[in-house]
Every structure is written in structure tokens, then in C-alpha cells.
């Protein structure tokens, strides 16, 4: 479908505002997507050039983020910004234009899909006469609504407080200097803004202490898993790439999987037995997104350690998304920040999801030629329909347990209790009953299973 090329456009115009409807439906919001024609000073990164994300893709993502917390975008616009204003980011003419849109539509909230300084946010709120949230604030709101576990709530609260700490600006009359001591004898005390910062810092320190306890608990659980060494496979990817759908397909779990940005937040771990019997721990992690706030990366480091410690990482891409290349780059950048090399094919598998959404021609071309200079990965799948899932399981098992080997095992009569294990952990090709009451089994098994068989038989023979 052809998209409009206008820099400024309203995507959905609502009927005339009806008094009293705010409480009955979602919050009315205006979504603004500024597109800067040049990077602000200090944002250039010559060592890590970034792919240019299309304005349409940024617009659609911003609207999706707003709808993820039940906002109703009554007006959305992509705005080209040639000269970012220190006071408001946007030019005075655009600010006045949006102020009129907010007034006419009775919007209660304005989303600006770009980082705003505290001064810019305050000035825009005055000019627009509405609450203003920048991209970071919006993502924090979504995470705050999605958090379900105690750990997730702590992490979001910590990120919120760090964000708020930088937003304390002199915008209220009560921020005058307080006097210290009693009566008129005390000298100047701390300002109210300093007091507020101190209170916030105290809360931050308390949350960090609680999260440190969570981290130690997670380390203990990880140490226990290593004593019974099940390989850990972590699924990562851009938000809405289909991670939870794939997780459910592989594990049979009931993790929430909706066509919504950040539908799930808290990580989930499940044990899965692969086709040839290899047990693994599968981890579904929080989705990544472009310009993920540093507050969130820092707060969620305890959770993201599951990715760092994973034996195998599945980088899941929504290959049907026109912006898939930029999304993949964003994920790879965050992985690099975590110390995971996305280019290490021994540890990271790039899986292309939603292949069912492509027409036959594009699908054949994609699998034959790859995309953006990358050849097709080991597997392209559809987590929704199940296409390619068996092949993916086989690749996972090969990566964590080695290639399949054909071996012959002869069991004595007193070892027949081991037969069930062989059937569960390998593909039995043939079975022969021996005259002494034992059996000979020919089977295909992974290298790990082969080593386990030899170890078990050795213990039995020497027991």
C-alpha cells in the first residue's frame, strides 16, 4: 500500500469531541514524530554508523507505543526539524499549530517521539497546555504498566526514579531556598530542589539494594542450574518480533503473545526437551527497541544477564517488516553493550520469523539471495503457523549438544533399566535381543548423549 509522503500529516481524524467522554474511553493524545535533518552535536558516532530509519516506520512505531498503553492518538504528525530549538525542539510556528490541535481535540497528552531535555519538556507543556511525554518517558510508562513480578516492578521503579531525577527543574514556586536552623539564627539551608533530589536518591539507593538481593538470588539459581548443567537458550529480538509466540511454540507455555509492542515484560524460563532428548532451559526476554533508554538498560541488567550467561542466543527478526535491517542493527548494538557478539555464529543464531507474511515471490527471493547483504540464515520460520520449527529445534540441539552420531550399545540383563533412557534421548534404529537376556541397540544420538551413555555404562560396570 502506498504511503503518503507529506512530512506533516494527520493519520486519523476523530469525530467532534463530546464532553464527558474522557472517563469512558482511552486518553486522547497527539503524537509528534520529529525527524531531524542533522544530528545534534555529540550524537555522531563515526565508528558505528547507523542505518537511517524511515520516517514512516518511526511514525508507525510511535503510534504503536502510544496504543500499547491504551492511548487514543486523535492526531499524529511527522515533522521535519531543520534547526532544533534548545527551548522547545520544534519551531514556534509548529508549537502554535500543535497547541491549536490540542485545544480543538481536547487532547490530554502529547507524545514527542524524541528525547526531550527537562527544559524542553517544561516549555512544551506550558505552550501546549497539556502533559508532554518524550520517547523515554513513554517507554517507561509502558514498562510500568507491563511489569508483573516483584523484580520487574523494582526494575521499572528504579528506571523511573533515575529519569525523574534529571527532570527536577525550577517550575514550581515552592522551590525557593529553605532556611536552616531555628528562627532567624540559621543560615541558608538546602533548596527545595536539592531536598527533592536527596529524597529521590534515597529511594534509588533503596531500590538498588533490593535489586542487588534479586541479582544474588538469580546468581544462586544460575549456579544450581550449572550443577545440573542444562544449556540455556535465550530468545532476543526487537519488540513485537514474535519472541513470545516462538517461546510458546517451543515450550507449550501460555506466555502472553499479542500483536502489540512490549506485550510481555518479565522474563520467563521453561525447560524444554529437544527432539533427540536434549534438555535445555529456554528464556524469553524483554523486547529491544531503538534508542532504548539507558535507564532501562541499567535497571534491567539483572534480567539481561540471562542473555549474557546463555549458552546459545536466538536473534529473532521479523523479516516481513520493511524496517527489519534497522531493527536488527538496534538489537546487535544492545547485545554488544551487554558483551555479546552478534557475529559469533557459534553462539548466536539469526532466525527470520513471520515468513508466512511474505508472498511466494518475495519469499523465494529472500531465501535465495538474503537481505541487506546478508545471506539467508540457517532457518526461516513462522512461529505462528509452526513452519520451520522442527528444523529450528534440530539446529538448536546440534549447537548445544553436537552433531548426531550413530552408535551401538550392548546392554547386559542387569542394565535393561537403561533402555527407557536410550529411547528418550536418541533415535533407536534397531534393537536385537541377545541369548544372554541382554539387548543390542543401534541408535542416533548427540555427542552429549553419547558421552552420557558411556558415563552411565561405566558407572554401572564399575558399580
UniProtKB/TrEMBL annotation:
Start and end residues of each Hflx-type G domain: 231-404
Biased composition, class Basic and acidic residues, residue ranges: 1-15, 40-56
Coiled coil (UniProt feature): 190-224
Keyword tRNA-binding: no
A single GO molecular function term of this UniProt record: G protein activity
Keyword annotations from UniProtKB, A to Z: Coiled coil, Cytoplasm, GTP-binding, Hydrolase, Magnesium, Metal-binding, Nucleotide-binding
InterPro entries with a match to the protein in the record: G_HFLX_dom, GTP-bd, GTP-bd_M, GTPase_HflX, GTPase_HflX_N, GTPase_HflX_N_sf, HflX_C, P-loop_NTPase
Taxonomic superkingdom: Bacteria
Cell location: Cytoplasm
Region (Disordered): 1-56
Coiled coil as UniProt keyword: yes
Family as reported in the entry's similarity comment: Belongs to the TRAFAC class OBG-HflX-like GTPase superfamily. HflX GTPase family.
Subunit structure: Monomer. Associates with the 50S ribosomal subunit.
Main function: GTPase that associates with the 50S ribosomal subunit and may have a role during protein synthesis or ribosome biogenesis.
NCBIfam families: GTP_HflX (TIGR03156)
Protein name in UniProt: GTPase HflX
Organism, scientific name: Mesorhizobium escarrei
Gene name of the encoded protein: hflX
Amino acid at each position: 500500500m502506498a504511503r503518503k509522503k507529506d512530512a506533516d500529516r494527520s493519520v486519523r481524524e476523530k469525530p467532534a469531541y463530546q464532553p464527558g467522554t474522557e472517563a469512558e474511553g482511552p486518553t486522547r493524545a497527539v503524537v509528534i514524530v520529529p525527524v531531524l535533518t542533522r544530528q545534534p552535536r555529540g550524537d555522531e558516532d563515526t565508528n558505528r554508523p547507523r542505518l537511517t530509519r524511515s520516517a514512516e516506520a518511526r511514525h508507525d512505531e510511535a503510534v504503536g507505543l502510544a496504543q500499547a498503553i491504551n492511548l487514543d492518538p486523535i492526531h499524529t504528525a511527522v515533522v521535519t526539524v531543520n534547526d532544533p530549538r534548545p527551548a522547545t525542539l520544534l519551531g514556534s510556528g509548529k508549537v502554535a499549530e500543535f497547541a491549536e490541535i490540542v485545544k480543538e481535540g481536547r487532547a490530554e497528552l502529547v507524545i514527542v517521539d524524541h528525547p526531550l531535555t527537562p527544559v524542553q519538556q517544561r516549555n512544551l507543556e506550558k505552550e501546549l497546555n497539556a502533559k508532554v511525554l518524550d520517547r523515554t518517558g513513554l517507554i517507561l510508562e509502558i514498562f510500568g504498566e507491563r511489569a508483573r513480578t516483584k523484580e520487574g516492578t523494582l526494575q521499572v521503579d528504579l528506571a523511573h526514579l533515575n529519569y525523574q531525577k534529571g527532570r527536577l527543574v525550577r517550575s514550581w514556586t515552592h522551590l525557593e531556598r529553605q532556611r536552616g536552623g531555628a528562627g532567624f539564627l540559621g543560615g541558608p539551608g538546602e533548596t527545595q530542589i536539592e531536598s527533592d533530589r536527596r529524597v529521590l536518591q534515597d529511594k534509588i539507593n533503596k531500590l538498588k539494594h533490593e535489586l542487588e538481593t534479586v541479582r544474588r538470588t538469580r546468581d544462586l539459581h544460575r549456579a544450581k542450574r550449572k550443577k545440573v548443567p542444562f544449556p540455556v537458550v535465550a530468545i532476543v529480538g526487537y519488540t513485537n518480533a514474535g519472541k513470545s509466540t516462538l517461546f510458546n511454540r517451543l515450550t507449550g507455555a501460555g506466555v502472553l503473545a499479542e500483536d502489540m509492542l512490549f506485550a510481555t515484560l518479565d522474563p520467563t524460563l521453561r525447560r524444554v526437551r529437544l527432539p533427540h532428548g536434549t534438555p535445555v532451559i529456554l528464556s524469553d526476554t524483554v523486547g529491544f527497541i531503538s534508542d532504548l533508554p539507558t535507564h532501562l538498560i541499567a535497571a534491567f541488567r539483572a534480567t539481561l544477564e540471562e542473555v549474557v550467561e546463555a549458552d546459545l542466543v536466538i536473534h529473532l527478526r521479523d523479516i516481513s517488516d520493511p524496517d527489519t535491517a534497522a531493527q536488527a542493527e538496534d538489537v546487535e548494538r544492545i547485545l554488544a553493550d551487554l558483551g555479546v557478539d552478534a557475529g559469533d555464529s557459534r553462539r548466536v543464531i539469526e532466525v527470520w520469523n513471520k515468513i508466512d507474511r511474505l508472498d511466494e515471490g518475495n519469499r523465494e527471493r529472500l531465501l535465495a539471495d538474503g537481505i541487506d547483504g546478508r545471506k539467508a540464515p540457517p532457518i526461516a520460520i513462522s512461529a505462528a503457523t509452526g513452519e520451520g520449527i522442527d528444523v529450528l529445534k534440530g539446529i538448536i540441539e546440534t549447537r548445544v549438544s553436537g552433531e548426531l552420531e550413530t552408535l551401538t550399545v550392548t546392554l547386559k540383563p542387569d542394565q535393561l533399566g537403561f533402555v527407557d533412557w536410550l529411547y528418550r534421548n536418541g533415535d533407536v534404529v534397531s534393537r536385537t535381543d541377545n541369548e544372554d537376556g541382554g539387548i543390542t541397540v543401534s541408535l542416533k544420538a548427540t555427542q552429549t548423549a553419547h558421552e552420557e551413555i558411556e558415563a552411565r555404562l561405566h558407572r554401572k560396570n564399575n558399580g
